[in-house]
Amino acid sequence: MSIRDQILLWSYASVDIVDIRRGDLQPGEEFDYCAPAELFLVSGSGMARIETGGVICSAEEAPVVHVEKGTRLYISQASNGLEFFLILFKASLPHPLPGGLTEPQTAVQHFRTCYAVPPGAAAVYRSMSSDMDRLWQQEEPLTRLETKQRLYAFVHLLLTELERLEGAEEKTEEQDMIAAALRHMEACYSEPLTLSSLAERLRISPRQLQRGFKARFGHSPMEHLIGIRLEHAKRLLEQGNRPVAQIAEEVGYPDSYYFSRLFKKKTGLSPRGYKQMLTAGNLSSEVKCTNCRISPSAVSQTVIVPARFDSYHQRGRATQSFRALLSLTLMCTGGLAHADGKIRIPHMRGTLELEREPQRIAVLDYQYADQLLSLGICPAGSVTCSVETDGLPVTLMESIGSMARLGTKEQPDLQALAELRPDLVVCTSFQEQCYGELLAIAPTVMFDRYEDWRLTLLRFGELVDRKQQALEALDTFNAKLDRLRRGLEGGGEQTVALIRPRDGSIRLHTDRHRTARLLYEDLGLAPPPLAVKQPGTSSLIPLEALLELQADRLFVLTDNKNREQTRLYQQSPLWRSMSAVRSGRVRHCHTALWTGYYGPLAMNRVIDEIAETLLSPFTSNFHIQNS
């Protein structure tokens, strides 16, 4: 069937969920069922034979099967048992059908018929189905709405996979590479895998591997590995009373403290808290990874801002139209909800309800000033950056001066905030200790400081009724990103490091750092080995370790706090002996621009600077005082 036609039909269809059911087939049991509505059968753990409407496959071969209404679904030979979900729905097609279909009658027939979806994202399908089941069973209007949003995300992933397979003839080599990587990850997830070691095993470059995963899944190989490890960790937590340290080691994390932090970041619960909730019966056995980009069921940039989503308002491939529709749907239902004339804002500390759209917004992290300014909204007040801000984009510089100063993000000036009389305060976990005091001053929401700025921008766009401006800002950025990515193709392998001399050492920003990810994930540049598989977003290395960095290019973050230290380092023989320095491939960058003001205004300038550095035939070493 033509996936392009199916994408068009789904983008115009009116979809309603009828029911979501969870089944558990014991060894030797059979399941014989006549579908009362269209449904997706999603297989979980276990193996079985599936027959429906001419489709005969195993649960392992096809983790998702679409079943036509009125068709018999027969599951047998469940030698090891089988867990599964039935997602029953009604999809009504418009009349007349949308234009652009290559074969309208055939397209409608295929839209209803039974078909199987090959493996590739099986774990993600299971996680998304579990999320939908958990939400559906709550029987609340808002959670039912959220379930519908998750179904759109489910279908989006399914169609993306089918579209990828339809073009398999052109991408056989890349698919084989990713399939081999996935098999190796599943088999060896507990081993100390790195991007370099995985690429070496596959006999390709780290950059090729990065770009292959980014194109197919929207995230890096290492993020995919994290998702696999955490899925295994959850199963181990469910099975017995093994110590967390033992489980951490079994899934590839010798440092149990780091594992616990990572688990909580991705699921919202600590490993022990997860186990306790399971024991109490208050948690589904497939808790979602709320911030994990491997899970498109979470409202994340993977779904809302796909890597190649840059033409939502232009004619193009059907995929773009569908992603545009999905983007708007998710933004309206997965982030903020407008009901009964009120605005409900989910955030890290619960849900805030506002009677009206906020007019005077105070931000306690300056990255939000950038994001709001890009939407044409000037915050009434903002905390200030701890390093110099001279040299920021003009729009930022001019507006910063007009905002009330509210101290720093580490020590906000609560008195100045109270005098400002805002009708909304936006804070992060930096203000955890004074959150109660903030609530006493004004309605307050706590956002995730490390969330991708593109997602936060969409949240703000919905909050202040500037959705169009938010999407246009994303279009502009993504188009620029794509141009740079294309410009870098065929330029050979370049290892790029992002460093900041500080406190007598050198802070190396790892592939987990939000700006470094722009280099490594979005642009597919290779990180140095020392920047890969580190527990945090940065690590401190001494000057003596610079030669081990093995970077072809250096981006050096410079500001008023480290300028003297950087100048002294530049005079050292060790610094001068680095290949990047000898070849003049060092760029000194504005610290506040690159790591502080994390939004469209700053990030567009960062992209310009990267382009100037990497696309010019020769980039000279900027003098420290000019950075």
DSSP helix fraction:
40-55%
Tell me the CATH architecture of the largest domain: Sandwich
Class per helix and strand makeup? alpha/beta
Beta strand % = 15-25%
What gross morphology would you assign? globular
Low-confidence regions: 282-335, 618-627
CATH homologous superfamily of the largest domain - what is it?
Jelly Rolls
Count up the helices.
25
CATH topology of the largest domain: Jelly Rolls
Number of domains: 4
Biggest sheet descriptor:
5 strands, antiparallel
CATH class identity of the largest domain: Mainly Beta
Q: Total strand count, please? A: 22
The whole-angstrom Rg is: 25 Å
How far the N terminus sits from the C terminus, by CA atoms, comes to 56 Å
Strand order of the largest sheet: 1-8-3-6-9
Your description of this structure?
- Residues 179-277 form the HTH araC/xylS-type domain.
- It comes from Paenibacillus enshidis.
- This is Helix-turn-helix domain-containing protein.
- By secondary structure, the protein is an alpha/beta fold.
- It folds into four domains: 3-166, Jelly Rolls (Sandwich); 170-304, Arc Repressor Mutant, subunit A, CATH 1.10.10.60; 339-464, Nitrogenase molybdenum iron protein domain (Rossmann fold); 479-626, 3-Layer(aba) Sandwich (Rossmann fold), CATH 3.40.50.
- Helix content is 44%, strand content 18%.
- It has 25 helices and 22 strands.
- The strands form five sheets. Strands 1-8-3-6-9 form a five-stranded antiparallel β-sheet, with helices on one face. It has a five-stranded parallel β-sheet with strand order 15-14-13-16-17, sandwiched between helices.
- Helix 4 (141-166) packs antiparallel against helix 13 (318-335) and helix 18 packs antiparallel against helix 19.
- The radius of gyration is 25 Å and the shape is globular.
- It starts with a helix and ends in a 12-residue tail after the last helix.
